[in-house]
Every structure is written in C-alpha cells, then in structure tokens.
Amino acid sequence: MRVLAALSGGVDSAVAAARAVDAGHDVTAVHLALSPSPASLRAGARGCCSVEDARDARRAADVLGVPFYVWDLAERFREDVVEDFAAEYAAGRTPNPCLRCNERIKFAAVLDRARALGFDAVCTGHYARLVDGPAGRELHRALDPGKDQSYVLGVLTPDQLAGALFPLGGTPKADVRREAAARGLGVADKPDSHDVCFIADGDTAGWLRGRLGAAPGDVVDEEGAVVGRHEGTHGFTVGQRRGLRLGVPAADGRPRYVLDISPVERRVVVGPAERLDVAALEGVRPRWCGPAPAGPLECRAQVRAHGAAVPATARAEGDRVLVRLHAPVRGVAPGQAVVLYDGTRVVGSATVDRTTPAAPPGRDRAAGRRDHAAPGERAPARDGAGARA
C-alpha cells in the first residue's frame, strides 16, 4: 500500500511513519508548512511549522530512509482554521482548532491531494484505533486513555476514515518514546504540544485582542443588573471565575462565574456555579459513522477533548442531533463538539448549537442569551452569539 506519512517534527508522527515502513508499505513523508513565516517562530516554541519542526521532520525521514517533501498549505490553513478560530470567538462560540484542522486540512486537503497522487492512505501519529467493522471502517478510542485523540477525530467521515492510518492507537505514550529512542529518532524526548499551535507564545487572549480589538460592554448578573465592565467578550470563557473585576459583590457572598456571552450585545452574564450545569444539548452539522440512528440511541457523550464521556440518549432529527445527558455536565458551550460513543467506538458527532440548563433560571433571564427550550423545542432565535467554554 502506498502511504503518505505526515511528519510534524514530533515523536508521535515519526514513530507512526516508522511502523508504516515496518509494515511493508511504500512510504513517502511530507511535512505540512502551515505558518506563513516559520522563521519568525522562536526556537522551541510550541507553534506549528517552526523551522526546528521542519528540520526534525526531515531528520526523521532520513533515519527511516524515505522520500521527504514539504507541502505549503499555509493559505488553506489560514482560511479554514485560523480565520475560523477568530470568527467563532467573535461570535461567542467555542472553536476547537485541532478538530477543525483534522477535518479540513489533514483529512481533507492532504488526503485529497494524496489520493490524487496515487496514495492509498495518510498516516499520522494520532492516538486512536481503526477497526474494520461489519459496516466499514470504525474509529475507536486509543488503548492509552490519557492520550486518546478519538474526540478530535470524531468529525471525520467514513470516507476519510477509510483513507487514514493510525499506527499508535494500541501503544502507551511512554512506549512510543522508548521506541523512538531505540530507532535512533532524535525526537524521542521532544516535548508534546498542548497549546493552540498557531499561537506560539500560548497567549490566546492576547492573540484574540490583537485580532478582534476592543469592544467594551457590561458584565451583568442574571437579573440584568450591571456588576462590572469588560473590554471585549472574547476575553471571557464560560465557567471563568478569575479576572472578572466585578465592582459589585454578590448578595450571598458566593463566587460568580461566566454563564453566558453575547458579543452582539457586548454583554457577559455571571452567576453561581450551579447555573453552569447542562442537562441537554442540541447539535448541528452531525457526522454519523454509518447510517443515522432510526430511534433513540443510548450512548456516552463527550464535549471536551480530555473530558469524561457521560451516559446520554441521542436522537437524530434531520440536520440536528438532540442529546439528553443522564447526569449534568458543567460548562457546555455552543461551538464545542459533542462526540458520541458506543463503548470505545465513535458513532457520531455534532457541533453544539444550544443547551438546556439543569438548574432553574433566574427570575427574569432577559439579560442572558442562553437558550432554555429543551432540545427539539424552538428557543428564541439566536443573534449569532453564544457561550464559549
């Protein structure tokens, strides 16, 4: 099988490529240039496509004895990931850039080009497992729960899964590092990247301020009373407690958290922690790994890359997914992905559009923009704003 191995310059993709070679595949390595100015990234920065990363990727290809190329996808990445990230925050939603990159870059732009060049699959260092099931290729959790990345791959279509190769899904990360050292790959001890890859210094709030500018507004409680001011809604996240700079203390003396964000009205709503609990959600743009379920689906729902998957009942309704959580989940926000599991198998995913709070709302709630209709019922039309976590 002809395999295109995507080498990021890290340890995972290098070992994944090595295993593809060991399996007898005809492997060619490619490094994706996603930054318009890789030389501007400081040495050791946890950003994408630094010169150091490109050099490490080339060295890994040399050790493996496979051809090496660099594909410039900086403009596509800017449009589909970076601009999307900024636009989602500007609209008050919670984007996941890793998920978007997998969906639109690695398993769309790269896979499409690879297939056009005659490759059968794209190999990456993601921690997930692919299993050939009765209805086709299935995506399953990695055996190492601490490194499982099935959540950020949950948006892939069956066709994209058919063109993917994840050799590391059955191996703990510590073993991958030992294997890299044994193979003479120079990246065995290279740190993992945890931040948004295109924000090299990790200051997401500062990056957003620079992109979106200042838009001062009010911080209000659930009754609509002004309790503070802010310089831009993009500086807040649902569930945030620190840095609110509230001028009016809560009557009960309890801490207050960000409950909701309305960029159009330039308003941030704060309240007690229990108001962050969500009992149900409604998702749009569903992706099913096979036919959509004909009736209620008992499953587990996960709304964060490293969050717990909780028991839930999901129901497909046209271009929407209704999910009732059997236990409340705290701080779910529009824009997040909800990935549904049957055991270790991913059965589908969607983008959260609205939520139903588990706790009863405040007296008026006219101040907030959270929807309180149960999924499947029509809530008041959103103005493009939502909450983000």
UniProtKB/TrEMBL annotation:
Residues 208-271 form the tRNA-specific 2-thiouridylase MnmA-like central domain. It catalyses: S-sulfanyl-L-cysteinyl-[protein] + uridine(34) in tRNA + AH2 + ATP = 2-thiouridine(34) in tRNA + L-cysteinyl-[protein] + A + AMP + diphosphate + H(+). The active site is at 101 (nucleophile), 197 (cysteine persulfide intermediate). It is found in: Cytoplasm. Residues 284-352 form the tRNA-specific 2-thiouridylase MnmA-like C-terminal domain. One of its GO terms (biological process) is tRNA wobble position uridine thiolation. ATP binds at residues 6-13, 32, 125. It comes from the Bacteria. It holds the Pfam family tRNA_Me_trans_M. One of its GO terms (molecular function) is tRNA binding. Residues 362-381 have a biased composition (Basic and acidic residues). PANTHER family: MITOCHONDRIAL TRNA-SPECIFIC 2-THIOURIDYLASE 1, TRNA 5-METHYLAMINOMETHYL-2-THIOURIDYLATE -METHYLTRANSFERASE. This is tRNA-specific 2-thiouridylase MnmA. It comes from Vallicoccus soli.
